[in-house]
Structure formats: C-alpha cells, structure tokens
Records
---
Amino acid sequence: LKYSEEQAKRKQLYNQIQETKGNIRVFCRCRPLSREESSTGCATVVDFDAAKDGDLGVLTGGSNKRTFKFDRVYTPKDGQVDVFADASPLVVSVLDGYNVCIFAYGQTGTGKTFTMEGPEHNRGVNYRTLEQLFSVARERSDTFTYNLSVSVLEVYNEQIRDLLATSPASKKLEIKQTSEGSHHVPGIVEAKVDNINDVWSVLQAGSNARAVGSNNVNEHSSRSHCILCIMVKTKNLMNGECMKSKLWLVDLAGSERLAKTDAQGERLKEAQNINKSLSALGDVIYALATKSSHIPYRNSKLTHLLQDSLGGDSKTLMFVQISPSEHDLSETLSSLNFATRVRGVELGHARKQI
Ligand code: ADP
C-alpha cells in the first residue's frame, strides 16, 4: 500500500510538471567564488534575489540586468543535499520503468564534476542516486525485485570508450539497434551492482581508467563527456511482469569556446567535436521541448547513444553550471542562453505573441 500511495503521489507530481513544461527540466547551479577570485577582489555578476522563484539575475554591465528563468536556481550556499532533494523523485522514477537522463552542462571549472561526482566527503548526484535506488529497492522488496548494473563510458572526439573494459576494445565501439528498436553498444561491460560498496569500486575503476593515456587528466576530462549508465531490470512479484529501464548521468565536456588563436591541430578537432555534440544535444532537447516532429538524434554519438532515454515518456534534467565571476560573464551568458533555448521557452514566447 505504501508503495502504491507513493507511486500515485509521484505520478501526480509528474503530471503537474508535464502539464506546464513536459518532461524537461533545467536547474541552474552557481559555484562559489574561488579563494583566488575572492582574494583578488573579483566582482560577482549574479544576483539571487528571486532565486526561490527560479529567477536568476545577471548584471551585464553598467546598470543592465538580465533575468533568466529556470525550474530551480541554486546559490553557492546550496549544498549537495539540497540539489539531490530536487533530483531524487526523478531518479527514483527509473524504478517505476521510466528512462531518465541527467546532464551537467557548462564552462570548465563551474562545478559539473562537483555536482555529478562530488568529492569523497561530499558526494554528488551519481553516488546519491545509486544509494537512493538501493534504499527504495529495499523498501519495495516485498513487491519487486530489482537488478541493477552499471556501465561507465566516455565519448571523446566522437568515439565511445568503455571505462570498465579491462583490455582495450579490439574494434571501435559502435551503437547498434536491436530488433525491438532499442539502442545499445555491443561488447561494453555492464557491471552488476548489489550494494553501494560495489558501486564505489566500479566508479573508482571508471575514474582510474579515464586517466590512462592522457597527459593531463583534468584537461582530458574537460574535453570528453563522462557517462554513467544505470540499467534496471524490474520484476513485479505480484504478477510476474518484467521491465527494463535506464538512467544516464552525464558530465558533459566543457562548453567554453576556444580562443581562435588556440585552435589548431588536435585542439581544433576536439573543439569541433565538442561543439558538434553539445549543439546536437541542445537541438534534440529543444526539438523535444517544442514537440517537433523530427528529433535529430543521429547528429552526434552522444544523442544517438542516449536516444532511448531522450523523448517519449523519458525524463530529462539538465544542470546548467555557472561561475559568479565577472571574468566569466560572456561564457556564463552563453551557457544561460543555451539552457534557456533548451527549455523551449523562446518558442513559447513567440507563440504567445502570435
Ligand atoms: P567542472 O567539472 O565544471 O570543470 P569542477 O567540478 O571541477 O568543475 O569544479 C571546479 C572547482 O570549483 C572545484 O575545485 C570544485 O570543488 C569547486 N566547486 C564547484 N562547485 C562548487 C560548489 N557548489 N561548492 C563548492 N565548491 C564548488
């Protein structure tokens, strides 16, 4: 009874959200000024006066201020617990059979990895999600059995790398479509996880593998998309029904535009690939938010890979991460514009005017 009540409540909440904005939500999170920024007297360009209503103010110079609207706005004082409290109903819905995608988007250094991974003593969405899934699965164990497994992937220069593979793939990893129409990558490791300790060692193995073959780990991770996929197989013990669902947690490559003079050779190729996949992601989410008849999944590896969990009755959450510093103003505005477009708000306005 407890479960069905809880499920009914969740459904009601989703329906309310869906009525107004479909299944796409955008949360904006601003990091604190760094110690160095504070010590050099760096000015802050963000204003959180109406953050509770989802409004973020940005001082764009002189006395000009632009206001951006999101589903949530987190100030630098909001912690991992506050952020996860809002994401939690969404992640739990994977146990009800929904496919879910969560992204962290933004300029390098704005807290994407902090939000998704988090430091060991203050973990982020990835770890809290798995902890929550195990806990809810335990509560429902009279009615359901859940089998959880995880894959850890990286997309770099439009190529997929399996971070849990013990030996390098002999062939390029490719996305294939099954006869039922779902997408998968044959040959990738799907590590079964039974409890949170299993998860910890898998995540650790994933981040160790990320470092291999790159001279500078931070630089490499800012130019690749890091993806944790949680696959759930559910069996309803009452009626024997089985279900499969997936939850993707994605720490995206840095969205900063490269200075023209920097862009040569490998860097130029990387920058073009990042640009391509981030715009493809933006285009897909925008097409979904505006209920377009054509969703351009095939324009990048990332959107192709996540296709089953983007659209339909899947749920999407994007964290747009920003810096409060005046020095980052132009990148901040560019991220906020991207996130605003993604919500499909612009079209909403255009329609109203017509
Ligand atoms: P990104 O993944 O976007 O490149 P990071 O997650 O590495 O950025 O964050 C950059 C720095 O800012 C790190 O030192 C991180 O600990 C710090 N940081 C980011 N967000 C927060 C936050 N909300 N609270 C405290 N520190 C943060």
Note: The radius of gyration is 20 Å.
---
Amino acid sequence: MAKPITAFTCTACGASHRKWSGKCDACGAWNTIVEEAPLSQGPGRGLGTRKGKTIPLSDLATQEAPPPRATSGIAELDRVLGGGLVPGSAILVGGDPGIGKSTLLLQAASAFARSGRSAIYVSGEEASAQVRMRAQRLGLGDAPVRLGAETALRDILTTLDAERPDVAVIDSIQTLWSDQIEAAPGSVAQVRTAAHELVAFAKRRGTAVILVGHVTKEGQIAGPRVVEHMVDTVLYFEGERGHQFRILRAHKNRFGPADEIGVFEMTGGGLSEVANPSALFLSERGEPTPGSAVFAGIEGTRPVLTEVQALVAPSTLASPRRTVVGLDGGRVSTILAVLEARCGIPFAGLDVFLNVAGGMRVSEPAADLAIAAALLGAREDSALPSDCVLFGEISLSGALRPVSQAENRLKEAQKLGFSRAILPSATKVEGVAGMRIDRTSDLTSFVGETFGA
Ligand code: TYD
Ligand code: MG
C-alpha cells in the first residue's frame, strides 16, 4: 500500500505545502503553516461504477424560470448580493472578530423572515438565549426567525434537511466540527469539510446558505480564505474599530457584480444603512486644507466620493516613512516615483503619510490623480479649491489616462455641491450642468496649472 502523504496547509490562505516552513510562500504570512492529517491515497485509479447524467443545454430553456431572488429589504445588503439572495447559493461573509458580522446576519435573517421567507440562524458561538437577547436589543425580538445553537455538522445538516429553510445562516464556520474528521474544530480540514457539506446541501435543497468566517490572526484556526473557492459569493465586512462605519464588500460574486459595496453605520441599536455614503465620507471636511483632495470614484455600480488626505514632513530617518492607510502602498510608491522622475519633485528625505477619510478603502487606479494632488498640496503647503474633485489614472510616463463612467462621477460630485472637476483630457464626457471641467493631459501640466510649480 502506498505511504500516506503528510500535507502541510497554510491556515490563512489554504495553500498546501510538502514540508513545514515558518513563512507561507503563497500569501507571505508567518507561522500559519500546520500539519494536516495524512491524505489517504483513495480507492485507486480507474472508472467509477455509477453513471452520471448530462442534459443538452438547449433543454434548459424549456424548463420553468428559476425561482426569484430573495430580497431582505436591507437595500445595502441586497445590492452587494447583486439584487438579493439567489436560492441554492452559498455565501461567505468574512471579517475581523467583533466587526459586526453576527449583528448584520441576525438583522438579515430577521429581515428575510419578516419578508415571508423561512430563515434559520445557527450559532456555534452563542447560546440561543444570548442570540435572543441580542435580537431584542436590536428590536428584532418578534421576528419569525428560527434559532439554533449547535456545532456538530451532522446535527446541523439533519436539522436543515428537516426544516428546509429558504435562508440558513451558520455563525461561524470555524466552530463547526465533523465527527468524520479527526482534526480539531477550526482546523483547515474541519473548516473545509463543513463548508463543502453545507455548500452541497445548498445546491441539493435550494436553501441559500450564508457562512460566517472570522479572519484569524493566529495560525491554529483556519481563516475564511480557505473556503473562498467553494462558495458562490464572498463578502468581507470591513471597518476600523474606532470608526462607526462598516463596509460590506463583494470580493467574488457568481450572481452579480464584484467590487460592489454596502455601507452601514454601527449604532447602539445595531447596524443601520447609509444610503448616501459620499456625504458620510466627506462629512468631516471643513475649510480647505493643504494635503486634502476629493476623489470621485466608482464602487461597484455606484459613484462614491472620498477624501484623500496627505501629510508630508521632514524625516529624521535614513529611509523615510511611507505610511498608507486605505490605499494600495505599491500604487502610492509608483506615483511618488513618477512625481520625482517626470515632474522633478523629490520626496526623498520626507516622511509621507496618506489616508482615506472615514475608514474607506480605495483600490481604483482612477484615484491616482487625487493621490498626487494630495501629496503635492501637502508638500507645497497649498490647498486645492474646496469645491473641486479629481479623477484620472497616472501612467509611468506621467501621462493621464481617462477612466470609465466619468459622467456618473461628475453627477455625484455635482449632487454633493462640488462645482469643479479636474480630469484627463482624453476623457469622453459631455458637460454636466453646474460643473466646470478642467482637462489636463499629463502630470507636469497638472502640477503647473494647479500648484504653479
Ligand atoms: P458582533 O456582531 O458580535 O461581531 P462579530 O460577529 O463580527 O464578531 O459585533 C460586536 C460589536 O458590535 C461589539 O463590539 C459591540 C458592537 N455592537 C454595537 O455597537 N451595537 C449593537 O447593537 C450590537 C449588537 C453590537
Ligand atoms: Mg459573531
């Protein structure tokens, strides 16, 4: 008989390795690689004995239309899901412990239940009485949602199979254990098995299954990334602990646009929706300050305005600080290099701090021009006009590239009281009433026109 293969798996990203090492080559995390139970070699090669079934694609057209999506009535959640929950789909909601996943999903389960769907909320972390207490605090004490407190995978599947709910929330995937596996609860093998069985159940019975996954810092507990590939939709719940804003972001969605965001505010009575995130992200803005620039961005299908803030100060360090929050650090380094090489504006010997206000994270390349404007403003101690928004991608040559959906961006800016926009000359856009548009072809002319440098 062949010798069983010992496998080592990264608990952060799920990559498997042949031998142990301190750092995972795949995701770069330290001390996350653990030994998994040996994989059996399986029954051997060759054909199986059961015949599967295929059907012609064209036959599908004659079957009835698929059941409609279930909407919760929480518009921010429904939009991130791509217009509601698809029956039979599996959704993973990941996030740091304490960010508000249980709160959000209890509210969601109650909303689905109140809109006439049968919903079950299974908690592996809290007793039913504790969940009920939380529900009462959230004003959901009378919602017709069924509660379960269970961690045994087999029992959960039996319950779900008997009750056949439309929506089942499992909080959290790391607390489940299957007696078919010898590994401890929370290990990669247990988390994968639980996810696999629950996803299979979702497809078989048409129940939409929502799995909660904690993002883990220590290596012994598997993180949500190890099951990302199994589910249809991956949502991450983000936010800074000090801020009350929470952002639900779609990282993968088989049934809707990825990159869509839903914005919530954590209040004493649970999470409330933020229908106009731009107003919220800009709410702390006061007088024009050097180093502040408003970026007109697009998140998923809707425009969102955010404020990029920069601080540039003389450094005492041999290699000056580059502290970036809410933006891609690599992107910022590139922009600094372009400013230095193409526009002759050096940042050597200067500490650079960049931040997106309100705890928002911006990953669009269209933010380049706003980042450059914030950096220049901070360096030159000169403020941009407070009624001005910017967008445009910076190429390595210093040229400005046009970005998509310019009109949507401008309309949102106009709605929020901005009256001027700086954007790349090649942008295809008709004017928007009440907006003055300044076109600029490259970074050097932008620097000259805006900062007189
Ligand atoms: P929780 O949903 O338990 O987080 P997770 O399931 O992601 O671990 O949220 C916990 C935090 O939310 C806790 O710090 C308290 C805060 N919170 C409120 O501010 N208001 C509320 O109404 C509730 C229920 C929680
Ligand atoms: Mg929780």
Note: The radius of gyration is 25 Å.
---
Amino acid sequence: MSIIKLHDKYFKQYISEEKIQTVVKKMAQEIGREYQNETPIFIGILNGCFMYMADFIREYPGNCEVSFVKLASYTGTSSTGAVKQLVGVNQDLEGRIVVILEDIIDTGNTLEEIYKIFSDKKVKQLKIATLFFKPDVFRKELPIDHIGMSIPDKFIVGYGLDYDNLGRNFGAIYQLTTKPKMKNIVLFGPPGVGKGTQAAILKAKYNLVHISTGDIFRDHIKRQTELGKIAQSFMDYGNFVPDNVTIDMLETEIEKNPDAHGFIFDGFPRTPTQAVALDKYLTDKGELLSGMVALEVPEETLVTRILERGKTSGRPDDQDEAKIRHRFHEYHTKTEVLKDFYSEQHKYFGINGVGLVTDITARLSEVIDNI
Ligand code: IMP
Ligand code: MG
C-alpha cells in the first residue's frame, strides 16, 4: 500500500494488481465460454481500456479479432457530459458479434454514445464488458452484459485510467485521498557516500527530522541498552541488525516526533521487508514516502573515503578494509534491490554524489523541491 502524487492530487492504493488480474482472467474465461464456436470482435474504448484489453485478450481462450474506438468525455476528475468521438469504427461489422471492452462505466454517457455508434452497423450481437462499474452514478436504462467489479462513486486511476493523462501506467488501482502533511525522504546510497553530511544540511533547510538508524544504534550501543547489545553483535561485523528490531526502533523514533513536518530516513529501509513496513506505517498515518533520493558514487572512491574517515570517526567498521568490503557486499546483495522497489513506484531519484558538498546539496534540493 502506498500513496502516489499525480499533478496536484494524491491517490492511495485501492485495488491490487493481483486482484485486477484475477478479475480480468475470470471475465475472459466467462466470455470465452459464451462464444466457443464463434469469432467475436473485441472493440476497446480508448484510451482507458488499453491495459485491460491487453490482459483480457491474452487470457481469452478462443479465436477473436481486436479493434479500437477512441472516445473522450472526462476532463480532470469529473465527466463533462459531452462525449467526443476521436477515432471511429472503420471496418465492416455486419453479422458479427461485437463485444465492447470498457475500462469503466460511470454516468453512462459514454455507453449511450457507444450504443448510438453501433446501432446502424448491422451487428449480430452487441455486448458490453466493463472492468469497473459505478452503480451509484449510472443514470441510463442501458444493458451492461459483463461487469468485472462494481465500485463506489470515487474517482480512481491506474491500470489505464488517468487523472488528466497521468497515472495510466500503474498496475494497481488508486483512489483519491487527502493531501499528506509531511515530506518524507529516504536518503539512499552505499556506505561512505555522504548521506550523513547531506542529511544534516537538508534537515535544517526543509525543517525535517533526521533519523539515522546507524546513529541511533550507535547511541544505544554507547549506553549499553538492551537494544544496543543486540545491535552491537551485528554491527561490529558489518552485518545488518535484524528487520524486526530495526522496524520497532524506527517506529519508536517517529512517534517521538508527533509534530514533525517530515523525516529524512538515513540507513532505513535497508531491505525490501523494511521498505514494505515503512510504506504500510506511513499509509496508515495518511502520509506517504515522497521519494528515495540516492547519492551515486563509484565504489573505489568510497572505500578510500571511508578509510580516511575511520582515522577520526572512531567507528570500528570504518577502519578495516575487509569489513568495509563486507558492508559493500551486504549493500549489493540486500539493499541495492530497493532501487528497483522504488523505481517501480516511480519514486527513485538517482543523483551524482561526486563533487562539492554545496553542489550535491543543490542537486538533491532540485529533486526534493518537486516531490
Ligand atoms: P461515463 O461516460 O460517465 O460513463 O464515463 C466513462 C468514461 O469516463 C470512462 O471511459 C473513463 O474514461 C472516464 N472515467 C469515469 N470514471 C472514472 C474514474 O474514476 N477515473 C478515471 N476515469 C474515469
Ligand atoms: Mg474510457
């Protein structure tokens, strides 16, 4: 579960990709059984139908033809009432079974237009198969033959559906939600990349609370708390502290700052399990992770930097090249996958981390200002 931003609005996940796939598959099989010995023409209503159409057709068990019509009625998040035909029917449909694939039926204005368009085409049968249907706003006396899912009257995006042309590329369905109040950033990158330095600057600039899991664990270790003892047994060897320990600790730190404008997470999440936990935690609070901003620096430069830092930082994991290499190994095998995790959500922003501290801050700010 996570929140996405499209133009000025925020949307939270409402129907998962898996659920949609199950529904589409079931529709394709049901309709397939109906036309076992026929070759129907599936006509998709563009733009919204393209993902549904592609998945439906792949699951369709028999012979079929595919075509498209392009209609438009929405601007923003409400229907204009007037349906425009942008691409019409350009093939002979006489005597054919035509099945219209609609992504969503809302007021029914588009559906009415569809019935009009096909009324003089001498088709043998005209059937409507819509993936989503909003029964509370439907105002027409027109038949709908197949409905994937009925949903309440809420504006949705994703899986082909858009909000002013954005959001079509998400595999799941999202629903309008209130604007989150925080800016939450994951500052990301391998050990020694300069996360601590940049976090200190960004924290002041954006009035955010900086949570460095490494610093917190080191503080507990210094005070020899129970948590510190557990953390030490892992960290001294360059290993990760187990996820459940880290997640509990992080949530405790967030709760300590109820009035924060947002957080800079540094050293968290380090694994996909932690990322999922963070997403869920923030979504439950009506907040979102604004993005992951990653500092990118070549590894050999980093090893030299860390050894240099080890001369003054006093950190045992900074002084031994074998341990440093092991930290990189942990990073590559366990943490780097987060780049894919956030890229899939369109929330990964890579930044060149080589150069003057002020230049790097400027590059980071350019991203942070816009997420
Ligand atoms: P209708 O003409 O009011 O039934 O609306 C049908 C068209 O409006 C659909 O084909 C969509 O393109 C668009 N639409 C309706 N509801 C939504 C929604 O919740 N999200 C995105 N587009 C929608
Ligand atoms: Mg449509």
Note: The radius of gyration is 26 Å.
